[in-house]
Each structure stands twice: as C-alpha cells, then as structure tokens.
Input
Amino acid sequence: MQHLIDFDQVTLAEWDMLLDRATAIRKDPAVYAESCRGKLVATLFYEPSTRTQLSFQSATLRLGAQVVGFSGTSGSSVTKGENLRDTIRTVSNYVDAIVMRNPMEGAALAASLFSEVPVVNAGDGGHFHPTQTLTDLFTISLEKGNLTGLTVGICGDLLNGRTVHSLLKALIRFPGNRFILISTKTLRIPDYIRNILTAAEADFTEVEALEGVIAQLDLLYMTRIQRERFESEEAYRRESGIYVLDSAKLALAREDLLVLHPLPKVDEITQEADEDPRCRYFEQARNGMYIRMALLYELLHHERVKQGFPKSRGEGRCTNPRCVSVQESSLPTLIEGGRCLYCDKEIKQ
Ligand code: NCD
Output
C-alpha cells in the first residue's frame, strides 16, 4: 500500500503482515526502538484528537523516528487561506509520511493526489477512519483469536461515526460475520455504506433496541453520538442519552462478549460497566499504538513517488457540502458510476 485512505488499500496479505508485526512489537517493543531512525513524520490535525494524534506521535517516537506537525489550524497557513493541495505539496517535501485528520470528507484522498510520501487518513469528517479500524481488528484478533464467524453489534451514531463505516467495510472482507446495527432511525448507517453491505451480500439487520439483541453478540462496538456533526444543539439532544450500556444490560450478555469503543466516550457506558472485564477499550487504545507502529514501519520504508498533476475523471459535480471537492476548488473532479470518489455520495443529476 502506498497510502492508507481506508482499509480497502490494505490487501489481506498486507493485513496479515501488519498483524504479525504489531504482535511482535507488542511483545517486545525494544526490538523496534531504532528501526526508523532518521525518518520524519508530519501529523496534520485540523480537528481535535487525543488518542489518534498522541498514539501516532508515540508510535513515531517509539520507532526512533521524529515528528513535526500542528494540532488545530490556528498556528498554520491554513488561516491565511492556503488550500489543502498547496499545504500537502509543501509538507511532503519535508517529511517521509503524512498523517492527517481533517473535517472534510475525502480530504485524505485529495491529499494523496498531491503527496510524494504516504498519506495516512486519521479521520476525514464523518467518512472514514482506517487506523481506528486497524486498532479494532488487532484487538478483536487478540481477544477472539480470529476475525471470522462473529456476530457483531454496532451501537450508537452509525450515521456520523467514521469508525463504524471503516470497521463495517473491513469486517465484511472476512467470512461468516453477521452484523446487528443498533441505532435510532435518524442515526442509521448512510446509504453509501448500506450499498456496500448489500453489494457484498453481507448479513446485516438494523434494529433500535440494544436489550433485545445483546445476548446474541460476540462483539459489541459502542460509539459516541457525534455532537460536532449535528446541525444544532437541539438536534443533538434529541439523539443523545438513548443508548447506555450498564450492568443490567451486560447481565443479559454472554460471558465471552467483547465490548469495544473507539473512545472518547461521553455517557454511553456507565462507570460501573467500565469495570466489567468484558469491556476492553483501554487495552484497545494501547493496541492502537502498536498497530500504528507496524503501519508506520511499513510506510516509512517506501520510496518517494513523484506525482504528476492528477487528471479529472467523469462529469458533473458533487453536491455534498461536507465533501472536500465542494469546499476546495483546486481539486480534479473524480466521479465514477454516479458516485463522488472523494466522499462516496451519489451524484444527483
Ligand atoms: C474516534 C474519531 O475520532 O472518530 N475517536 C478516535 O479516533 N479514537 C471516535 C469519536 O470521536 O467518537
């Protein structure tokens, strides 16, 4: 893989390699402490982040590489009106890999068109978050021993939760998984994800009550209602506080249930439930650093790739106001099969 925009870029053979490497690093991190000495990683975080940013920075330093970057745009030239294309063309001269979080959907794909070094998507708006998925898959493998034949419940904000979109797209690539998608009617998965599940003939159902299904699950993936993606505080309040995992619900679940959460959590898991040994999200966060070390190790040993100016494909214009191609005028059109390749939304004619 040259870039990581979503888990699609990772072949299953590459995934096995990442998994093996992350397992080895977790066992004895000291072996890798000098493995990327002399390399430099940029972390460009246009949106708030604790875990993803710090785990990437920790991962970089623990490989013996160094890190530069910004957190929030106030100290960067973005406030002077610089477009993403110019920022990436500039930064890619300085470093060996770029890790970027940006609120625009498709921003990582856009950045990859102009970068000579690998671009890692650390979250592009409510769209995708593949390194959280690597973290999730690594943790599931460690805890369950495999990624197949699982009954997976995903609960909360399935519309705006980018971790959910990337995780679903990844887990349908492993055979025998069954999905129970638990949300209110308003926060169901977006159409482009439903289309992907349907095209892959994935076994999935959409329900509203967690209590009714928790007993069936091997894995429960809880998520936060994504306040920052709502149009108003009032709209957020209508959806918040509906799903709360507590001891009473956990009492209905299997002994070998695995509960994961990408974090941060707000009010969707009680403190009492936190202490249940089936809740493994803090271990999951730790695993995130190891799998990011494995990923950076691969990417930092890549040759620099010269980029020609990317050509437009397809006709028309995306109308999704959150899409990078709508917010930035400097990008080529990328439309295929009636779909915007940046944000995956259908193009309405
Ligand atoms: C997630 C994210 O940023 O999308 N957090 C993370 O990266 N661990 C989940 C969230 O913010 O709810």
Remarks:
- Residues 320 and 326 are 7 Å apart (CA to CA).
- The chain has a mean pLDDT of 96.
- The pocket of N-carbamoyl-L-aspartate is lined by residues 51-52, 123, 129, 132, 162-163, 224, 226, 262-263 (CB under 6 Å).
- The radius of gyration is 20 Å.
